[in-house]
Each structure stands twice: as structure tokens, then as C-alpha cells.
Amino acid sequence: MTATHPTHGSPRARHGTAAAGLMIFAAIMLMIAGILAIMRGISAIAEDQVFVSTPNYVFSFDLTGWGWIHLALGIVAVLVSVGLFQASTWARVLGVGIAGLVLIANFLSLPAYPVWSVVMIALTGFIIWALCTAKKGDI
């Protein structure tokens, strides 16, 4: 008969593993969202023909302006995701904040690229959910 660790397989141990998994998920997804935002920003700054111009929309920005916004948010998102891999509290707080800003930026850029904006809104929603679900003591 072998002795087992008292917490091995316990619900608390499994919950801690799931919480750590959510943090890793959030870190990877935030890094991917950041890289995609960087690519989208570069594409918009270069005035690529990928984006659709929609006149008479309630709010409008110059495509180059949107490019710089997405580029800056993408760079910050990638940097924050590195902190999430270290399970830093500051990274979780900034991660929720930057994911919220990415979500808002994608909502506001719906006229320029509607399908991709909706995909990014859903992705950042999952990131915010993952960052807010895991408790600090579980990681």
C-alpha cells in the first residue's frame, strides 16, 4: 500500500489546477489578440485595401488613426500577457483593462472590418472572463 498526498485529487487541488489553466489560457489568448491587433494596426497604417470605407456612420476615424490605436493596444497586450505567465496580480488587473480597451476599439472599428471585429470582441470577452474567474489563492 502506498501513501498518497492528502490534497492529491481533492476538489481544492483540481480547482487550483483549473484556475491555473484559465490563467494560462488568458495569457495565451491575450498574446494572440495582441499580435493580431499589431498586425491589424500595421495593415491600417499602411492603408491596405483590406478595410472597407463606410461613409455616413455615427462615428468615424481616419484609417491611419485606427491603425495606431490598434498597434498601441496590441503592443501593451503582448507585454501584459508576459506578466500573466508569471501569475502577477498587476498583470491580471491590466489584462482585464487592456482586454476591455481592445474590445471597445474593435466595437468602434466595426464599420472598417465588421466580421473580424466581431471575432475579436468574442475573443476578448473570453479573455476577460478567464482573468476574472480565477482566484488569486488558487494559482
Question: What's this model, at a glance?
Answer:
With 139 residues, the protein is mainly α. Helices cover 71% and strands 0% of the residues.
Give an overview in words.
With 139 residues, the chain is mostly helical. It is 71% helix and 0% strand. The protein is built from 4 helices and no strands. The chain has helices at residues 11-45, 63-85, 89-108, 114-133. Helix 1 (11-45) packs antiparallel against helix 4, helix 2 (63-85) runs antiparallel to helix 3 and helix 3 (89-108) packs antiparallel against helix 4. The model has no long low-confidence stretch (mean pLDDT 79).
Task: Give the helix tally.
Answer: 4
Strand percentage, roughly?
under 5%
Secondary structure: helix percent: over 70%
* Gyration radius, rounded: 19 Å
Beta-strand segment tally? 0
Main pleated sheet: none
- End-to-end Cα distance, whole Å, is 31 Å
Mean pLDDT: 79
SSE sequence, one letter per element: HHHH
Poorly predicted tracts of residues: none
Content-based structural category: mainly alpha
Shape: elongated
